[in-house]
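User: NADH-quinone oxidoreductase subunit N, Kribbella shirazensis:
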Amino acid sequence: MSAMLLPLADFTAPKIEYNELAPLLVVFGAACVGVLVEAFLPRPLRHLVQLAITVVAVVVSGVLAGILMNQKKELLAAQGAISVDGPALFTWVILLALTLISVLLFAERSIDGGLSAFAGQAAAVPGSEAEREGTAARVEHTEIFPLTLFAVGGMMLFAASNDLLILFVALEVFSLPLYLLCGLARRRRLISQEAAMKYFLLGAFSSAFLLFGIALLYGYAGTMSLGGISDALASQTGGDTILLAGTGLLGVGLLFKVGAVPFHSWTPDVYQGAPTPVTGFMAACTKIAAFIGLMRVFYVALGGSRWDWAPMIWVVAILTMVVGSIVAITQTDVKRMLAYSSIAHAGFLLTAFVGLAQAGSGVHNGITSTQAVLFYLVSYGFPTIGAFAVVTLVRDAGGEATHLSRWAGLGKKSPLLAGIFAFFLLSFAGIPLTAGFTGKWAVFSAAWTGGAWPLVVVAVLSSLVAAFFYVRVIVLMFFSDLPADSPDVALPGWQTTSAVALGLAATVVLGLVPGPVLDLAARAGEFIR
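Assistant: Predicted structure for NADH-quinone oxidoreductase subunit N:
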C-alpha cells in the first residue's frame, strides 16, 4: 500500500523564534549535557564539571532573559504556545537569580565533614552496609545539578505557557526532578524518602485534576490555547457546566502547586523532610512559577468568567491566610514553621490575584495586581533561600538541629547568625524597612484598589498573628539561656556565605530602595493574549 504524499505547497513549516526562546533552550540544553556528563565522565571530575555547567547555563540564560526584557519583547512564540512577554521575562530573570543562589547551597561541602547535603547512593537502604561504604568512599550524587536545571527549565516554561497542553508538560518537567531531589537527603534519609513519596503521590493526584480540567476546557472551547478559550468565552452562550467544572479542576491542580489551603497538606512534610538546600529552592522558585502560571491561565483564558471563579479564590485566600498563620504557632520545628509561613504568604499573594479580577481589565491609578505579585515574589524569594541557608548551619551530632528548643540562646553563641535569621523573620512578618513590608504593602494596595478590601482586612489580621510566631523565635534566640548541650554553629564555606549574604543584601535593598524593582515590575506590564 503506497504512502500518500502531500504536495510541498500544502506543508507549512512551524516557525520557532529561537532568539526569544534562547533562555529556555540554554537551560534545557545544559541539562541534557549534564546527563551526558554523568554517563561518560569519571566520578572524581563530575562535581566540578556539573557545577560549572550549571552556573554558566544559569548566568547565560539570565543575561539573555535580561536583554529580552530590556528590549520589551512581547510575542507569542512557538506557534502561539509560549508567551514571551513582560511578566514571563521578569519571572525568568528572578527564577534564574534564585536558582543561582540555590546551586551554591547544593554545592556546599565544608559544613558536613567535606560532604554535601545529598545522599551518596540513593538506592542504598538507609542504615545498611552499602550506605556506610558509600559514605566512607565519599561518594556523591552529582545528578542533582542536571535535575535542578530540568526543574528550573520546567518552571520557566510553566510561567510562559500560552497553551494548556504545554502548561501540563511544563508542570511534569519541573515536578518530577523535585520529587527525586526531595528524597536525596544524606541525613535522616527515611523522613526524606517519606517526604518524596508524599510529594509524588499528592502531586500525581493534582496532575490528574489539572489534566481532567484541561480536557473539560478543551471540550468547552475546542482549543487548548489560552487566547482561544478567552474567545470562546466571549462568543459562546451554552456549556456553562463544563466550563465551571473545568475551571474548578484546573484551579485545584494549580492551587496545589501554590500550596494554598485546602491543597497544602504536602507542604510541611516535604519542607521538613527534603534536604534543606532543596527546601529553599522549592519554597522560593516553585511558588514563583506556580503563581505566574495561575495568573496567566485565569487572567488570559478565564478572565471573561471572573465572576464565576472569583468567589472560589476569595474562600481559598481567606482559608490559606488563616490556616497558615494560626497553625504555624503550634509548630516546634523550624522548617515546618517556615512551611506554614509560606502557606500564609500564598494567601497574601492570592489577595492581590483576586483583587484585579474584581477591578476588571486593570488599574489605572495605583499598583496593578500583576506588578504587586511580581514584586512580592521577589521580596519573598531572597529571604526564604537566605533563611534556609542559615538553618543548614545550626547542627548537632545528628545533622541539622531543626527543633525550636535547640535554637534557644543561639544569639549568645553566634550573635551574627542569629541576627541575620532574625532579620529574615522580620521581613516575613512585614516589619518596615524590610523587603517583606514593601511586598505586603504592594499586594494589599492592589487588592484594595481592586475592591477586595475584606480580604485586606483578613490579611492584616493574619499578619499580626504571623508576627507572633516570628517574634517568638527571635525571643527564644536572644532572651533564653544557652543550654549545656547547645548545638554547634558550623563554619560555612564560601558557597553558603555567599547565599546568606545575597539573601540579606536583597532583603535590605528591597526594603530601603524598592522603587527600581517596583518600576521593573510595572514595566513588565500585563499578560499578552
